[in-house]
Write a structure and sequence with these properties.
mainly alpha, single chain, 60 residues
């Protein structure tokens, strides 16, 4: 029971890591920008992505 759960969670983890790696290589997302949120989290900081893109995604 536990062995199967560990194997399943391992596949999920490696799949997620592969997804992050592949989407960054394709240029879909730049995850380094998101990593900088912890260092630059002031209210006056620029958004990572323009807000207009969010409204376009919601309207589709």
């Amino acid at each position: 029971m536990y062995f199967g759960l560990i194997v399943f969670l391992t596949f999920v983890l490696y799949g997620y890591i592969f997804h992050l790696y592949r989407s960054e290589k394709r240029g879909e997302r730049d995850y380094e920008k998101y990593g900088k949120i912890a260092l630059d989290d002031e209210l006056t900081s620029k958004p990572i992505e323009p807000i207009e893109e969010e409204t376009k995604k919601e309207s589709k």
